[in-house]
Design goal:
This protein is of the alpha+beta class. 48% of the residues lie in helices and 22% in strands. It has a 4-stranded antiparallel β-sheet. It has a two-stranded antiparallel sheet with strand order 3-4. The relative contact order is 0.15.
Length: 109
Amino acid sequence: MKTKDKSIMKLGKVFLSVIILLIICVVLLSTSPRNAVRLRMIHDGHPVMAITCNSYHDKDYSRYLNTTIYSISKKDQYSSASGNFLVGMYRIQRHSFLYTATPQPDIVK
């Protein structure tokens, strides 16, 4: 009986460690706009593309939309969750020291 309790406690500690590690990874990935774009791509289900893509600050769209816009190349674009548009631009918002990226439809096409 006691060995069962110990194994359950050990499993609980491992689970808690994994959760804490995931939270730390999410916070570290949100400390810059480029990493926020990568985190959003992972969240949308494209982890390999998130590692290989190179996002950049799109100054023209940022000026036009009066917000911070980061873009990815055409070959890295993917369909949005709703399937309404190709995700190639992200609106970046800053919350204290963390950044979030939201897919932005290309309205200028």
